[in-house]
Specification:
Radius of gyration: 14 Å
Number of domains: 1
Distance between the termini: 29 Å
Structural class: alpha+beta
Shape: globular
Strand content: 35-45%
Helix content: 25-40%
Length: about 120
Amino acid sequence: MDRKQVRTYYTNKMTSTEIKEIISRELQAEPDITNVFGLDLTKCLIEPIKQKYQNANDSTDIYELWTVLEETEDGNGYKIYFDEETKMFGLAMKSDKDELIDIGGYGTFLKTLYSM
């Protein structure tokens, strides 16, 4: 079953509050959230928002993911998203056409953050 098919079978919808709780639990292991892998998470973490993402390998494969982190305030750095169907975090970036491109899932929030 490919990603498109999987998405049609699951309807487990999450809220932004539930996603923030997942992130918060993971961050309990970090002694200083103002300097996690060089990032101030008090500035980079955003209110989770659903946005359309494009598969990096198939521009016709477009789906919604929750954006949870913006590396830079201008929005041009990496993004971390949460996929509510797979329950995994992943990395994305903006294309030159301002489209969000999914560049891969990494599992946990911290694994994704450390992969940036």
